[in-house]
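Narrative summary of target 7.
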Amino acid sequence: MTRVGTAATSRARARPLAAVAPVLVLLTAWSSLAVGAGVLLALLAPPAGALGWGALVVTAALVGLALLAGLRQLLLLIAAQVHRAPPAPRLLPAAGARVALLYPTADDFRADVIQRSARQTHPHTRTVVLDDSSLPETRERVGALARSGGIEVHRRGDRTGAKAGNLNAWLDAHGDEVDYVVVLDADQEVGDGFVSGALARFAAHPEAAVVQGRIRSRSGETSFARDFSGLFTRHADTKLAARSALGVVDFCGRGAMLDVAALRDAGGFPEVVMEDTALTVELERHGQAVVAAPELVSVEDTPVDHTAFAVQFGKFAEGAVQLLARSSRSMFDTRLRVRRRVDVALELLVPVLAAVVPLAVFGYSVVGAATGVEAFPWQLGLPLAALSLVPLLPEALHRARTSGIIRGLAFTARASMLYASIGIVAARAVVAVAISGRARFRITPKERAERRASVVVRRRAPELIAAGVAIAVAVLSAGRPELAAPFIVIAATAIAFGWRDAVGEPAGEPVR
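Modeled conformation, tokenized:
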């Protein structure tokens, strides 16, 4: 990892109980839920033989972990509802603070967004495009913007470390020239008072290393973007409010201002795919805080179609698995608060569970059917399904209030299908990182995939193959193809969204 400065911190004397507390909390909650799931499985679909009981133990453990992650989502939703955002600070920002807006780009350059964001009211603000583009036409457009005045361009000698490496390269060269940096994605836009507002937050919170603003999604021009921009916006709002209420605000990787001195003390941006979560952990290790600033709003693009969403989720899944493997010792690090350690662990487990829970349900049903026992009971599947709907509730209720209950329910069904469709994407990410030990940083596509049926089928080939294999296993082992339902649902929903993107829908008013 590139080091921007010397990482120095006072290490507290190790306290055995504090070191193991989060592990004990997680194990106690997990084991309680797993035992409950195991008892229900034994009562509703009692296994036969050693193989059946072995499948029960594994399935109960995974279901218990999935229930724990779902209950955490419910806690976040409740915390967000009861949280009252603090008012914007009235303190005057530091007039002489030197600030840089940093735009890391890699062939996803947006000149209009950068130009509008550059119009900050704070006088000592510079805007820098950190250009990692490889296409000549993109590099020329970046150069043309720089020649028009007011925008700087920085290019590094190599492209190691992905986005974090790009940021670190600029800080290595120019970190002494600024006091704060604002990190923005290539498609992200902020208003002209963003820098002044963030500096006022820093003035009100001397302990802060990061001031994290709200992130909203544009409705976009495609049916996918119009349909789901509200979901992503409300999810981000809920996450920021809930974590502020629980005292575990995190750096989201964009739409935030960072103190350069604190960043240097933490060793710079960790050069991993999920550099935002990794940096949040490093800052807390060094006694630094992340502060929420809901009055500071940035706007970014919604994934343009299902293919773009799958790429985005795949990057998140790979990054989560990579960070889980690398940060396992953080669970015992007494410099991190218990709540931070528990929150990070459960957050990173989400894509892993998306990959393994369908496999566990399928495996238990096949083993049971092959030994003459009932399939996975619906009574246990019901709470799993209900908890999976929790993140959708804010937008679903909004749709029901503004457009009627029927449309609210229809949206809930579509959003459920959306997250059901990425099970194989998550599984591929988990397997890829487990085999290679590396995660890939991929740019979310900004243009729609080819609009042909053959392309839809080709892009969703992994889901179709997984469903075909599951059906074959279910038929050969138990003569019951319906047991492959988890993988059939994944393939069907992925194809449905791909077909919708390919065929398109009549342009309508953006969902607001």
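The radius of gyration is 24 Å.
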